[in-house]
Automatic annotation (TrEMBL):
Protein's name according to its UniProt entry: Plastocyanin
Xref: SMART domains: PbH1
Region (Disordered): 370-389
All copies of domain Periplasmic copper-binding protein NosD beta helix, residue ranges: 166-336
Keywords: Repeat
Chain intervals with Low complexity compositional bias: 370-380
Keyword Repeat listed: yes
Length: 446
């Protein structure tokens, strides 16, 4: 079909859909039928005046391609197999103006969100979820969503790629009650809770790779997220806390267990010009808070003034059988600190083959070497911790610079999101070189 005819078809379908009241962006039932395989590109604003209007016209397999501009709207994608892509990552901006909770909400399977910026939302830049309560609800006291008696319902398969999420009041990119997805090549800053967050999934089958998170309260957080959960090759530098994996009663599917954190650069996480999270963490590279059966391997963890890696318990949920292997620690307040200030203690946690200088308690690498019996109690220590400075409003975080573009954004067709992503083989992952500590350097794509 000639391009002019295609645009005419889209325009006619748009009028019919809008007359039928389907302009909410939720993929309503008022769309006209289209022959199988007749996937189209719907351009904003050429074919539809807003992103939400374009999404409401989209059928499975369609691409919504957005021209440069600032779009003041919240986009909800409720049709499966749709790709939302900006022509320019830095110049296609969905700006919530602090008047809406979410910039983009993905509520259908196999949706791809690519090559755009999402900013100034009171909660999340991009929310991917199978939970109706999360879409409609308010965050809990410490972030996340308390969905009450709602059964766990997973959104199956998603992709967030080449997205910039900045200055959002909760999370930059948030996958909650979702499985089988990838968050990659993205940038998150100014997250008042976390830049990138994965919560309430088991098995997750989620890969978080080649992202940059800086100037957040926490760079990456995984809560009650485990089972084929991979955090690989990310740059988590200049936050208040680099990375946490934790258990929380506020979300379902606790306790957290079964994540792999490999080949990440986790450095200098004591940036004062950042939002302050409710728990007040600061100067920490990695925090394991009630998480169990996780593998932390071949990460470079350096220059975190409180600690490189902290292992502790969450309320009544201990951290058990975590393996800390072949990481490079340097210039941290203490490289590895295990601390259990209450009666709840971990068991079976161990270290092997790490490059490190200081631990609390002392000689931790000797007394808790891998392999360790799952019944062996983990020792506890204390160390000096610097006072955390006050944070700043998330709206005051520095604006990001230009970020890498999605290749061939204007000419590539819609992205096919697989039912299950290819999961990484981390045996070949290496410690990021020290040269990557330079400003702007990125961990090589795996």
């Amino acid at each position: 079909m000639p391009r002019s005819g295609l645009r005419a078809l889209v325009a006619v379908l748009g009028v019919l859909a809008l007359v039928a009241g389907c302009g909410s962006g939720d993929g309503g039932s008022g769309k006209g039928r289209r022959p199988a395989g007749a996937d189209v590109t719907i351009r904003v604003p050429a074919d539809a005046p807003t992103i939400s209007a374009a999404v409401s016209l989209a059928h499975p397999g369609d691409l919504v391609l957005v021209a440069p501009g600032v779009y003041h709207e919240s986009v909800r994608i409720g049709t499966a197999d749709v790709t939302l892509r900006g022509e320019s990552r830095d110049k296609v901006v969905i700006d919530g103006r602090l008047r809406q909770p979410n910039g983009v909400v993905v509520a259908a399977p196999r949706v791809a969100v690519e090559n755009l910026t999402v900013e100034n939302n009171t909660q999340n830049g991009v929310l991917v979820t199978g939970s109706a309560a999360a879409v409609a609800g308010s965050p809990g006291r410490t972030g996340g969503y308390d969905t009450g008696d709602e059964p766990v319902t997973f959104l199956k398969s998603f992709l967030v790629s080449y997205v910039t999420a900045t200055r959002n009041g909760l999370y930059g990119i948030y996958a909650f009650s979702a499985q089988n997805g990838v968050i990659e090549h993205s940038y998150a800053s100014g997250g008042a809770d976390s830049g990138i967050y994965v919560g309430q999934c088991r098995p997750c089958r989620i890969v978080v790779r080649d992202n940059v998170a800086e100037l957040n309260a926490v760079g990456y957080e995984g809560t009650n997220a485990g089972g084929e959960m991979y955090v690989v090759g990310n740059r988590l530098v200049g936050n208040r806390v680099g990375l946490t994996t934790d258990s929380d009663h506020q979300e379902k599917l606790g306790p957290q267990r079964g994540a792999v954190v490999a080949g990440n650069l986790i450095a200098a996480n004591q940036q004062a010009a950042t939002p302050e999270q409710a728990d007040g963490g600061w100067g920490i590279g990695v925090g394991i808070d009630g998480g169990s059966d996780n593998e932390f391997t071949r990460n470079r963890i350096t220059g975190n003034v409180t600690a490189g890696l902290v292992l502790t318990a969450t309320a009544d949920m201990p951290p058990d059988t975590n393996r800390i292997t072949e990481n490079t620690f340097a210039s941290n307040g203490v490289d590895v600190g295990w601390t259990f200030p209450t009666a709840t203690r971990g068991r079976g946690n161990c270290l092997r083959g790490n490059e490190l200088r200081t631990t609390a308690p002392e000689r931790l690498a000797d007394v808790a070497s891998c392999p360790a019996s799952s019944a062996s109690p983990s020792p506890s220590g204390t160390w000096a911790k610097p006072a955390a400075p006050g944070g700043i409003p998330f709206t005051d975080v520095a604006a990001p610079g230009a970020q890498p573009q999605f290749p061939h954004a204007t000419t590539a067709g819609a992205t096919t999101v697989p039912a299950v992503p290819a999961l990484p083989d981390t045996t070949g992952v290496t410690v990021p070189p020290v040269s990557l500590l330079a400003d702007g350097a990125r961990v090589p794509v795996r």
